[in-house]
Design brief:
The protein is of the alpha/beta class and 339 residues long. It has a domain of 235 residues: 3-Layer(aba) Sandwich (Rossmann fold), CATH 3.40.50.720. The protein has 13 helices and 12 strands. The strands form 3 sheets. The chain has a 7-stranded parallel sheet, with helices on both faces. It has a 3-stranded mixed sheet with strand order 7-9-11. The chain has a two-stranded parallel sheet with strand order 8-12. The termini are far apart. 46% of the residues are buried. The protein binds nicotinamide-adenine-dinucleotide and thymidine-5'-diphosphate.
Length: 339
Amino acid sequence: MNILVTGGCGFIGTNFLRHMLNESSCTLINLDKLTYAGNPRNLTSINEEYGGKRYFFEHGDICDSLLIPELLNKYSIDFVVNFAAESHVDRSITDPDVFIRSNIQGTYNLLEAARRKGIKKFIQISTDEVYGSLGSKGRFTENTPLAPNSPYSASKAAADLLCRSFHRTYDFPVIITRCSNNYGPFQFPEKLIPLSFMRALKDLPIPLYGSGENVRDWIHVNDHCRGIELCISKADPGSVYNFGGDSEYKNLEIIRKILEIMGKPDDLIHFVKDRPGHDLRYAMDFTLATRELGFMPEVGFAEGLEKTIDWYLNNQDWVECIQSGEYLRFTELWYKERV
Ligand code: NAD
Ligand code: TYD
């Protein structure tokens, strides 16, 4: 079984490749454009162990309409798992252009090439953010109407609709997964958890947007990867599955937990101007995935967070390499504008 994984040098893609190489006998082809968020160092040990045997890396863009058909043929691809995307809401506010291109045009390009080739399944990795925002009660189900509020979530929702149309129109075997906020090893330090950790490590103020009351449903990346694997083996074409961690926390609570684990003072928390269009709350109803796929999150949040912080502490060379260049440039600019 040959799987084309796009965006495999990013956070979730890296964890998925590691999971599948360890837990299955599949051959995995990783196509990545290596944007600021794509780090080939994430896969050094994978390359040493499996490179040229069950793991192949291709540097390229999912928008490249010549490259994709070539790769589908070259590797006799059976499955596509599309992680490749611009993924940070704040960046989509300052520079939406590349989100439209990679997340919409790129997904279309993959779908069209895969449809022409005729593959077994196409898994589109989407997000809970396509549903918009919840009030203090309720959870998103797969039937919640799409109501995205940021350029990022709008681009992901557009891709979901293209996937749906390819199933309805061409009977193309696409499955959409919508997952809540992931955390775990290899996450780029622009997202809340690694950003808070890294700033706390250097005793820098941690920007908390608005009131800090916004709620996210946190899932360990390993649980998300297991859910995707279940979709490859069990999901019916045309289906949509929510994945979540059943772990709702306010942003203020998250940062306090991180500071407590690290033995740092609460006065590092710095309330700043809110994110425009900031969604108040996300929470996932994933009973469909439990019933039909047997999915259940296994990593408790307290344990998962401690292990994640340990991972960052024990991988300081990764942290140092990531912290140069683009990460610092964007974070510092964005932060300055908000204080
Ligand atoms: P990430 O930003 O860490 O990684 C994205 C990867 O895609 C990078 O390696 C980047 O180089 C690559 N990429 C970007 N544009 C590309 C293009 N045009 N062609 C080829 N490669 C390209 O993102 P992530 O957090 O790992 O998220 C992966 C996917 O999961 C995204 O589609 C995202 O929308 C979705 N998702 C993320 C979360 C989360 O909490 N991080 C939750 C739900 C869904
Ligand atoms: P983020 O990790 O960017 O994920 P998403 O916006 O996709 O949910 O943000 C998680 C939450 O943390 C969100 O409510 C915004 C908030 N946040 C901060 O308060 N400060 C920060 O520096 C960042 C990056 C996020």
